[in-house]
# Entry
Amino acid sequence: MALNQATKFATTVFFFGCLSFVLGIVAELKKPAAGTPIPGKNGVICIFPKDPSVAMGALSAISVLISSAVGLIAIHFPYKGQSVPRKALLASKTMKIFYYVLTLTGAGATLFNTINEGLIHARNVHEDLEYGCPTAKTGLFGGASFLNLDACLFWLVCQMLVRNAREDYFDYDEDQGEIKDDYIQIGNN
# Structure
């Protein structure tokens, strides 16, 4: 049985969303709590152990961006040569919330945490002799990964809303491939 276009899009969104979630959790688990402070004459140099948290965070951000991009393409894709105009598609307030918020939520949090962790590793010289060399706050990568999973699931809900909007707009049933005829014409008898 061949998958239809909507199922392929949904599968891709789900795969990259789950991949982003897993990579974010791995980044959280592999992140060290702190580096090793090496006191010097004018300050402290922090030496951090080699860890994949920044790379995993970057891959998680890329995965959630791919998931969001595919979700965005999926809701505007012309199925069977028919596309719903954007104005008709975004007529629902619920649809607008899904549409605009989802592109920012998970990706923004993951990018922020990844950049923050990368800057902590790069700026490792401090003038304060009492500096303890902490890394980013514990739980940020994990929280962002749950936001990524939520965004993935919301994109799937958004695709269901688009399917309903498409069926309403075209008065067309995608599963059966025929035009709906729910009303019976009553003649003048």
Summary: The chain has one domain: 5-173.
